[in-house]
């Protein structure tokens, strides 16, 4: 409270608690909104317009990249240099060991598509980050399967990541093992 003296009269300025309450509510709302947007990833470049989030637990990946060009934008990018994947026909966790080459300036996600089924999709990987062992939820009959790796690249548009373009790279999935589990109903049969 402020006090002033004028000619022997003491003036006391009253604090308006209604105004203080409004200011407090606005401050709490602003701080809560800031935490909410950071917690969910919105407005911070951690969630993309395709609802994928940046993978916070991605492993460091130093694999070789090969240069390619995004088909719709003509932008040169790097994708993992691989033409085959070796899987255990008796397991659903498989060694993928792929990632976003460090040469890239754009974040990317990857999807493994076998016989028109997306059996694994990663979160968004920053350059130099990747995935090692992944859960496919699929038991393979021992065989070789034609597959496609779909690499989707993103750019930061304001506060949100947006899909820039995708490139598809053919790969072969070689599933080997005894074949005892492939009849579990989750199996992919090569036809």
Overall shape: it is elongated
Mean pLDDT comes to 83
Poorly predicted tracts of residues: 34-43
Main structural class? mainly beta
Oligomer status: single chain
> Main sheet, how many strands, which sense, barrel?
5 strands, mixed
State the end-to-end distance.
Answer: 84 Å
β-strand number: 12
What's the SSE blueprint?
Blueprint: E1 2-6, E2 9-13, H1 17-40, E3 59-60, E4 65-69, E5 76-80, E6 84-88, E7 93-99, E8 108-114, E9 117-121, E10 129-135, E11 143-157, E12 160-176
Parallel strand pairs: 6-12
Antiparallel strand pairs: 1-2, 3-10, 4-5, 7-10, 8-9, 8-11, 11-12
Explain what this protein looks like in three dimensions:
By secondary structure, the chain is mainly beta. It is built from one helix and twelve strands. The strands form four sheets. A five-stranded mixed beta sheet has the order 6-12-11-8-9, with no helix packed on it. Strand 11 and strand 12 form a beta hairpin. It is elongated.
């Amino acid at each position: 409270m402020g006090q002033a003296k004028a000619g022997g009269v003491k003036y006391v300025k009253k604090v308006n608690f209604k105004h203080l309450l409004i200011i407090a509510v606005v401050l709490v709302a602003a701080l809560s909104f800031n935490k909410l947007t950071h917690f969910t990833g919105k407005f911070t470049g951690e969630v993309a317009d395709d609802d994928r989030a940046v993978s916070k637990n991605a492993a460091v990946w130093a694999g070789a990249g090969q240069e390619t060009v995004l088909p719709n934008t003509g932008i040169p990018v790097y994708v993992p240099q691989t033409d085959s994947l070796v899987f255990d026909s008796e397991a659903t966790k498989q060694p993928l060991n792929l990632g976003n080459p460090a040469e890239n300036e754009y974040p990317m996600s990857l999807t493994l598509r076998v016989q028109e089924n997306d059996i694994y999709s990663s979160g968004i990987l920053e350059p130099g980050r990747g995935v090692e062992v992944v859960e496919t939820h699929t038991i393979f009959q021992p065989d070789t399967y034609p597959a496609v790796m779909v690499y989707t690249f993103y750019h930061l548009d304001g506060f949100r990541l947006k899909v820039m373009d995708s490139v598809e790279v053919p790969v072969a999935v070689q599933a080997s093992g005894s074949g005892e589990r492939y009849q579990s109903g989750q199996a992919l049969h090569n036809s």
